[in-house]
Amino acid sequence: MRRQTYKEGLTIVIPLYNEEESLHRLAKSLSDFMNSTTIPVDVLFVNDGSHDGSLEKLQKICKQEDKFNFISLIKNCGLSAAIKAGFDHSKREWTGYMDADLQTTPEDFKVLWELRQGYALVTGIRAKRDDSWIKRFSSRFANGFRRMFTKDGILDTGCPLKIIRTEVAQRIPMFKGLHRFLPAMVLLQEQQIHQVVVRHFPREEGRSKFNMANRLLGPLSDCFAFLWMKRKYINYEVDQRFYD
Q1: Which of 67, 90, 105, 111 fits as disulfide partner to 42, beta carbons 3.0 to 4.6 Å?
Q2: Model confidence pLDDT, tens digit, residues 192-219
Q3: Residue 160: pLDDT over 80
Q4: Is 86's pLDDT higher than 60?
Q5: What strands lie across the sheet with 161-165, from one edge to the other?
Q6: Is 94 helix (H, G, I), strand (E, B) or coil?
Q7: Does domain 7-232 have CATH number 3.90.550.10?
Q8: CB atoms inside a 10 Å sphere around CB 214
């Protein structure tokens, strides 16, 4: 297999499921960001089997902006699958990730980008979360439990604003729920990670797809899956290559 080559810059992956109401505001926010930065950027929307009008809106939006692209999954497969699909289809050296609800802003990719040198992953910390107390509590509890298992030192693994070297991202063996362990999986590849404070905003359109059960029970059970993978993980580097 020949080593894949990537274009310079950043692909921003946006997984979405039933986000019809927020898509126009999201597209404008992304366009404003691309017009204000010198970073070579394109956007890849991943429609995770939405059953509202999200796909139809995506088709129109991507026809209007040549740096907007989308892929659409046949059925709803969950956030981890949508992120993995985005990683696998990224063509640039770095891949960014953010949610479609605009509780984070693409403008903060500039902050992550400036700090990327020497790291394989730069991830945000929502220092001032504009969420309900129950969301903050469940997230803090799940983060603490996960850190106890992974020892990755990540303060806010659920922050939906990250950039990762694409070659590292594409080596991550993704399974359901593993999006919560992206920093830990980067560390398994013996790569360096960095955390930086980013802004957080209230959700203005649509509804959250998470509740108390999948914020707490899902992450707890996924910790055991991660421990199994950590014991079985294979990490290698090629020293020399000679093939046609």
Answers
A1: 67
A2: 999 999 998 887 665 555 555 555 566 6
A3: yes
A4: yes
A5: 68-72, 41-47, 7-16, 92-98, 161-165, 121-126, 193-198
A6: strand
A7: yes
A8: 12
